[in-house]
């Protein structure tokens, strides 16, 4: 079987390593079935000599994998360009190059959280801070279109998922299909064409991973410091069993 590519944009080594752990476990990937790619590192290494342009041959790289998973990230795609760091600008340019190949070659793609901004903007969505959600657990619902989608096979019609994001899709292009929705964030999962997906919730994140991220990113605006104890108590009390089925279904459907 060809492995799946996990594209990571997190500079924190410990969080990146935990993302590999949780994605592997929740998706049911066996040894060698998930290839991590630290895109932020590749871009940072290329910046001094080439202004952030890497020599990645995305078409060849993606051709060696069954599909692509993009995890969460520290960047907000909708930030004004003048406020973005050079690293963020360069990472986003590489992700656009990758998505050009993904869409052109119809390569299976699943973007979690940060994937909503990257795939959404690439396809003409409006992404901004209107529907941001604080870190924690949220109840979401599968739409009628979602009930027919193979990535949501076996997923409950209403379920609890881990969320935490400063930006979200406000308006999707006409060719996108909403698969999961929510009260505070209307676009929780969408599909482009037949094989490109993005979720606002985290199918690749388990409770230990979320708690670790909350501790690591304390003070980064995902929650107020005074709410820490209450937030951690609520998160620990949440029953989150359905989102990971999306990731496992992605693996099962597209493994080749």
The parts where pLDDT drops under 50 for at least 5 residues are none
Beginning-to-end CA distance, first to last residue:
5 Å
Main β-sheet, in a few words?
Answer: 9 strands, mixed
> DSSP strand (E) fraction?
15-25%
Helix and strand run: EHEHHEHEHEEHEEEEEHHH
Rg, alpha carbons:
17 Å
Outline, from the CA principal axes? globular
DSSP strand count: 11
Write the layout of secondary structure elements.
Blueprint: E1 4-8, H1 13-27, E2 34-38, H2 39-50, H3 58-63, E3 68-70, H4 86-105, E4 109-112, H5 114-122, E5 126-128, E6 133-142, H6 144-147, E7 158-165, E8 168-171, E9 176-182, E10 189-192, E11 196-199, H7 207-216, H8 228-237, H9 243-254
Parallel strand pairs: 1-2, 1-3, 3-4, 4-11
Antiparallel strand pairs: 5-8, 6-7, 6-9, 9-10, 10-11
Helix pairs in contact: 1-7, 2-4
Question: Which features does this protein show?
Answer:
alpha/beta; nine-stranded mixed sheet; two-stranded antiparallel sheet; 9 helices; 11 strands
Describe this structure in words.
- The protein has helices spanning 13-27, 39-50, 58-63, 86-105, 114-122, 144-147, 207-216, 228-237, 243-254, and strands at 4-8, 34-38, 68-70, 109-112, 126-128, 133-142, 158-165, 168-171, 176-182, 189-192, 196-199.
- With 256 residues, the chain is an alpha/beta fold.
- Strands 2-1-3-4-11-10-9-6-7 form a 9-stranded mixed sheet, with helices on both faces. A two-stranded antiparallel sheet has the order 5-8.
- Strand 10 (189-192) and strand 11 (196-199) form a beta hairpin.
- The longest helix has 20 residues, at 86-105.
- The protein is globular.
- The model has no long low-confidence stretch (mean pLDDT 93).
